[in-house]
Amino acid sequence: MLRGSSSAGMKAALLLIAVCAYSTGAKAEKTCEKPVYLTLDTGHMEVAPLMADILRRQAVRVTFFAANERTKAGDGSLGQHWASWWRARGAEGHEFASHTYDHVYWRADLPGVKPTFRVRPSAGALAGREFSWSAAQYCQQLSDANERLKDLTGKPPLPLFRAPGGKTSPKLLAAAKACGFAHVGWPPAGFLGDELPSDKFSNAALLAKALRDIRAGDILVAHLGIWSRQDPWAPTVLEPLIVGLKERGFCFATLSEHPAYRDWLLRANAAKPSATGG
Fold this sequence. Notes:
Blueprint: H1 2-30, E1 35-41, H2 48-57, E2 63-66, H3 83-91, E3 95-98, E4 104-110, E5 116-121, E6 131-134, H4 135-153, E7 160-161, H5 170-178, E8 182-183, H6 203-213, E9 219-223, H7 238-247, E10 251-252, H8 259-271
Parallel strand pairs: 1-2, 1-9, 1-10, 2-3, 7-8
Antiparallel strand pairs: 4-5, 5-6
């Protein structure tokens, strides 16, 4: 009799746990009905440690687009000086993607049967000079950045890229897709304005605009330091922006969860060779 009662009690307890777990899970699924996707491009990196502190404090994961840009300290944003910083971001669960290794701007499509582009790197040994590059040369820049990110973070970067300045053409996008990279831009509301001159666009005004205009599903873009801005956007605006968006019911996700890239990422993962070489 006592054994039967104990068994019945155990079953009831297990049922209650299952119901609670289902209820909790259902609630968890509903907590991100208004996602936004914060992305951070590399820059001079001076504010990078402070920005990382904010992201950790606010439990926000972002997608970093990285190039080996000139920095205020160290040997470039993907150099050895910043290796421990990138490794820590990888451990925190952020995602990473290419910004072209030498921060290469697309300038124009060039005539010819095969896709060729006029480009201008703004970092590295060739900075400031213009070149005619084949699709293969541009793709190498995309791959080089991702390879370096993998070395630094210990995790495979996403097969995505952001062209510096967001400057592209249909031919460039097609060439990048052919070598395994989909481009990530941003909507007007997602441009957070940290590249704008601070004497005309104050931090307070940029924050107010972002909180007013951002909508669910938007990709947001800012940088790990902008050389030209006198009153730095980061980290001054970053935490009030995150807090303000959370108060408005928004949540933060990485591009690995973005519906526009989900199928692309699934296909890319399916195409990877297995660990056994199959």
